[in-house]
Write a structure and sequence with these properties.
Blueprint lengths: L1 E5 L6 H9 L2 E5 L4 H16 L24 H12 L3 E4 L2 H15 L8 H12 L3 E2 L2 E3 L8 H9 L6 E4 L2 E4 H8 L10 H6 L3 H31 L9 H5 L4 H14 L4 H4 L11 H4 L1 H23 L7 E3 L4 E3 L7 H29 L1 H4 L16 H17 L21 H32 L7 H11 L12 H12 L18
Parallel strand pairs: 1-2
Antiparallel strand pairs: 3-5, 4-6, 6-7, 8-9
Helix pairs in contact: 1-4, 3-6, 4-5, 4-9, 9-11, 9-14, 9-15, 9-18, 11-14, 14-15, 15-17, 15-18, 17-18, 18-20
């Protein structure tokens, strides 16, 4: 279990990647306790002064002008949790819920939400006990907060809803018992503080970012393998070419290919005097295309790091000024837009890989046996594996349509522009799975091509990449049941096994 002392507002991407991968034992830095207490005291002062403040003693959304009596304030907070827990669809994966809870704890502990330390510590206790609330994936439009998902998270604090523990669904009340907790009676502002926020959208988007990074590393490796297998030129990766254009991500992408391809290899040296003048774009333009994808990944990482440490509920409590302001930090447009850009990157990584695979099976282009198998005709080889890659690439084109431009007003037009960030980020999982499948097919094909070049060898780094695959999948000497080969190759990619083969400073969350 990953142990992390959380200083609110200082979560790093490497921390979040670890939390996505494994359970976490979270300890809250005591330095934040004073700010949390002052924020909660400010809410109590508002009530003592009989001031009318949204979300504390009013209704919500279009009911914001409805004053709530003091006797009903606790009921108001309980009611908002239960009424807003209206999500549908399959439950979030435990890794998603874990990220969501850490992000919520981090936001609340900043001390601008008017919530008691007791409530934050209860969330931490559930997290550390690996009692994960059952949260449906669908039902948020990514504005006014991820209300439905965060309400489902909060029901367990009340002893309501359901939780997942040791892989089994149990009642929220049973989940509290497992964690050694009693149901909490939420105070003024606390229900709204729990429900408002962008943490569901951000959790999905972070998972999309981490997947995109794994895909990027694997695609760089498979692309370099394909250059070798297809007897491609190293010249297009020359640093001088990329310096004169000037895009830093293109320069860095080209450097990553040079890191793998080195200056030469036995395979590379074997065709130095060939008559071929240029390679197809899928080989030659890899730094340009992958550099553009890297730009989107780095931009998304920057935005999501800020959002992971943000205070995004409403209203916000500024205790030092004795002021409470109703704003719109719950609007998840920044997440929606970077999720849309990650979708473009993920789709293009897959599209370029599919074209390289098409090149490898074409004997006229690659000078390898047709469909990468001996005794063609009797053996179909990689013919339909490439078709599978094409199908996945085509599906990604539809999924890459931007979600952030599709606002649909809600709450009787009070919430008249929303971000759709939750879907924008959630669909990245399907796209990542598709691209991992495309890359798996290319990885198999490129390693097959390397084998056909034997006894000539590739570079040390690419030999390692080849060996990692061959430890899982044997050479394709004749037709066999193909799907398990793709599954094993895809597992290598999605575990991030190829991340260590690219430069350590290439991808944001992989930097120490």
């Amino acid at each position: 279990m990953y142990e992390l002392t959380l200083t609110p507002g200082q979560l790093g991407l490497a921390d979040l990647r670890r939390i996505n991968q494994e359970p976490v034992k979270l300890v809250l830095d005591a330095g934040c306790h004073d700010g949390i207490a002052k924020s909660a005291a400010t809410v109590q002062q508002v009530l003592a002064e009989d001031r009318v403040v949204y979300g504390i003693n009013t209704g919500f959304g279009m009911l914001a002008n409805t004053r709530i009596s003091t006797d009903d304030l606790d009921l108001l907070q309980r009611s908002i949790v239960l009424s807003h827990a209206a999500g549908v669809g399959q439950f979030m994966q435990p890794s998603t819920v874990r990220l969501l809870m850490v992000l919520k704890i981090n936001s609340l502990a900043r001390g601008y939400s008017g919530i008691r330390l007791q409530v934050i510590e209860a969330l931490i206790t559930l997290l550390n006990a690996e009692v994960y609330p059952c949260i449906p994936e669908k039902g948020s439009v990514g504005a006014s907060g991820d209300l439905a998902p965060l309400a489902h998270m909060s029901t367990v604090l009340l002893g309501e809803g359901e939780a997942l523990y040791n892989g089994e669904r149990i009642s929220g009340a049973a989940g509290l018992k497992v964690a050694g907790l009693e149901p909490i009676a939420l105070g003024p502002k606390e229900g709204l503080a729990l429900l408002n926020g962008t943490q569901a959208s951000a959790a999905f988007a972070l998972q999309g970012l981490f997947a995109a990074e794994d895909l990027y590393a694997a695609a760089t490796v498979t692309g370099a393998l394909s250059v070798e297998a297809a007897l491609g030129s190293r010249r297009p990766f020359d640093d001088r070419v990329h310096q004169v254009r000037g895009h830093q991500t293109q320069i860095d992408a080209a450097a990553a290919y040079r890191h793998l391809l080195q200056d030469d290899s036995e395979i590379g040296n074997s065709h130095q005097q060939c008559e071929k003048v240029q390679d197809p774009y899928s080989l030659r333009c890899q730094p340009q295309v992958m550099g553009a994808c890297l730009q989107q990944i780095r931009q998304a990482a920057q935005v999501l790091l800020v959002e992971s440490n943000a205070v995004s509920d409403n209203p916000l409590v500024f205790a030092d000024d004795n002021d409470i302001i109703s704003g719109g930090n719950f609007h998840a447009e920044p997440i929606a837009m970077v999720a849309d850009n990650l979708a473009l990157a993920i789709a293009e990584i897959g599209s370029l890989s599919e074209r390289r695979m098409a090149l490898l099976i074409d004997t006229n282009l690659s000078k390898l046996p047709p469909f990468l198998v001996d005794n063609g005709g009797v053996n179909s080889g990689f013919m339909i594996a490439q078709v599978t890659g094409a199908a996945l690439a085509s599906e990604n084109k539809s999924l890459a349509h931007p979600a952030s431009v599709d606002s649909l007003p809600t709450s009787a037009n009070q919430e008249d522009h929303v971000s759709m960030a939750t879907f924008a980020a959630r669909r990245l999982r399907d796209m990542s799975d598709n691209t991992a499948g495309i890359l798996a097919v290319e990885l198999l094909g490129a390693c097959q091509g390397i084998d056909f070049r034997a006894p000539l060898k590739t570079t040390v780094g690419l030999q390692q990449a080849h060996s990692q695959l061959r430890a899982e999948v044997a050479f394709y000497d004749k037709d066999r049941y193909f799907s398990p080969d793709i599954e094993r190759a895809q597992a290598l990619i999605q575990r991030g096994d190829y991340n260590a083969l690219v430069p350590a400073d290439l991808l944001p969350s992989l930097q120490s």
